[in-house]
Every structure is written in structure tokens, then in C-alpha cells.
Task: structure prediction
Amino acid sequence: MSEAVWRVLAARGFGGLTLRAVATEMDASTGLLTHYFPSKKALIAHALDLADERTATRPLRDAPAPGLPALRAALLDVLPLTPDAAAMNRVWVGSWDVALADPDLAARQRDRYGSWRGRLRPHVAAAVARGELPASSDVDDVVASAAAFAHGLVVHALFDPARFPADRQTAMLDDFLASLTPAVRPE
Amino acid sequence: MSEAVWRVLAARGFGGLTLRAVATEMDASTGLLTHYFPSKKALIAHALDLADERTATRPLRDAPAPGLPALRAALLDVLPLTPDAAAMNRVWVGSWDVALADPDLAARQRDRYGSWRGRLRPHVAAAVARGELPASSDVDDVVASAAAFAHGLVVHALFDPARFPADRQTAMLDDFLASLTPAVRPE
DNA sequence: GGGTACGTACCGAACGTTTGTTATGTACCC
DNA sequence: GGGTACATAACAAACGTTCGGTACGTACCC
Result:
């Protein structure tokens, strides 16, 4: 069932997420859907949870080292570098319209992204502790900036994949991270 | 009429943009709407054009100086620092779901953001020319990074306005711009 | 261990509403 | 009086939701 929801979402977005579309996708009746979801909103909530779960359980690249390299790995995991990652991001970006229109869903998204920043935070803190970032850095600001940069890059890459191939996204991320580190002047 | 479309969009997003919602909003009939819009898709396209127009004609802060300050001003104009700007961004972010679901609209968004980056480009080029940015900078990458950063910050600020008040957004942008400039070591 | 009771899983059809679209009518303007 | 600017009404389709009915497992009783 979740598979069908995901396929509908990836193909038609949240605007095309209907009980019948999901039912047809899985060759079932609308009765099945309503049996598990008391309302349409519950379906939408499940779709968001589904995106959450797929995001959480997707294979992550392991961080080569704590600090900046770990942050880099975590952000690379978010970018639409592969078709699967692009589909995932397409769902997330698409969810923003419906989430912003509903206070409950908006609050859940707020918490979601808050906790994502929370998971990014240790990497930034470690980077500061290891001297990769200036000690004067505001950790929360750096975290938020990195999260914002990644999400914005996701959007631009989704709309213009030709101009933002995987290697350019990676290069841009590396430049961004490099710009965070204090410049070392050649002697 | 455009005013009514805008109000519906700001309140209910693209998922709640219907002919009748707009008609009710302006105390008119659906016949009026269909008189001007041959189809629903035309309505959506108009909504996007409307967002475009409002984006283009909104009062912009004038750049205090060419180069980096001009880039800063242009990006500040995008961030949801005021309720009006937040409403505008809410519409833009909401448009991404419907845009990603329709190839025509997706192409138009792609061009839109491409031309926005095009308008940002001279400022970055000027910054390089003036020595505010390293001569080794890839202008297009810097432009895209700045655009991505701003758009990502928009998303996070929309979902969590309490954690991203105007002054923090501004501070984060300033930090981002500062990180682009080569560090100057105190003698 | 056969019968009964009951909860869960699901189908299929129908409900009433909302949707986009179309058709017809009317007032007004040049 | 022909064209523009709407209103009004109706349309079929799609929508979320409700509901009666079937199948099946599981527990309990005697």
C-alpha cells in the first residue's frame, strides 16, 4: 500500500494524491483505503510519514571522519544526486504546499526540519572542536545555513537537472563547506 | 480579480486554488472566471504570472554599492522578512508541487529561476571585478549557491518563523556573504 | 470438537459534495 | 445590432466518505 502511495506521489505530487489514484495504483478498492485511513488528511499524514521513513532508512554513506567530512556526507545524502534521491526530494518539495496550508502538518514539518538540523548539529560542533571551523562560529547558525543551502540546492536541481548534474551539486557543496573554513594563506 | 486569486493562494495554497474559491472571494460567479480563463491550467498559469508580477513590481531596496552589497540587497529582497514577503514566498514555495507535476509549468519555473540567477549574476561578476570575491571564483557557481542559500532559508523560515526572525535571517545572509570573501589575516 | 460469537480485512456500491467545463441568457457599450 | 462582459444554470466527472455485506481467523463455550 505504501508503495502505491509513493508511486502516486512521485508521479503526480500531493495535488494528485487521491484515494482513487492510490486504489487504482494497487488494484484495490477505495474501501481498502478508507479502512486504513479514517480521512484524507490521514492519508496525507501517512504520505509524510512514509517520506520520513524512506528518508530515515535509505542507505547512507558513512562519514569518513567526524566534523566537516561527516557534515558533507550528511548533506550529500540529501541532494538529488541519483534518480531515487530526486524522487524523494520531489515528494518533500511537493509536500510543502499542503503542509503550509494546514497548521497541523506545518507544525509537523517544522519539527521534522528542526530535528534534522538537530542531527546535523553534532557534526558542526565536532568541526568547531576539531578546529575545522573558527571557534567564533555560532553552531546553530552554521547548521541552519548548511541546511538551507542544501534545501535550496535541491529545489534548483529539481527544476533544472540539466544545469545541476550530480558533480556540480557536489562541487557546489564542497565550495560551500570550504568557504566556511577560515582561509589559510600560503606562506 | 488578481487580488482574489492572491488571497486564495496565500490562504489555501495551490491545493486550494479552485475556480469557485476565487469566485466566492470576489463575490462573483464562476462564469466570470471561465470568461477570462479557458481552463484551470490557465488559472494556475495566471497565478504564477501574478506571483511573477508581484515579485517584479514590489518595492526593492536600492543597492548601496555595486558588487557584494548589491547582491546582499537582492537576496534580502527575497527573504521573508516582512509579512508581505512571507506571503509571497508562501505562494512560490506552494507552487513547486503543482509545477513539478506538470512539464509545462516545470519548464516555466526552470526558466524563471534561471533568469533570476541571471539577474544576480552581474552583482557577483562586479564583486569579482572589484576584488570582493577571489578572482578564482566560478561566477555561475557563486550565483547558484547564493540563490540556493536564499531559497533554502526561505523554506526554513516559512516553517519555523519563530526560530528564524528577520534579524537572524539577515545575520545568516551576512555570514554567508562574508564566508565568500577571502579571509583577511590581521597583520 | 462442533457451534457460536466476535473482531479484522476487505469489497463494491452508493452517498452527497465539489470539481472543471459548457451552454444559454442578459445587459451594456460602441 | 454585433461584440464584450458577465450571470445563471446545468453538466459529467471526480472527489471524500459512508455503509451493507462477505470472507476469514480466533476465541470461547459446552
The longest helix of chain A spans residues 103-129. Chain A is about 70% helix and 0% strand. Chain A has a mean pLDDT of 92. The radius of gyration of chain A is 19 Å.
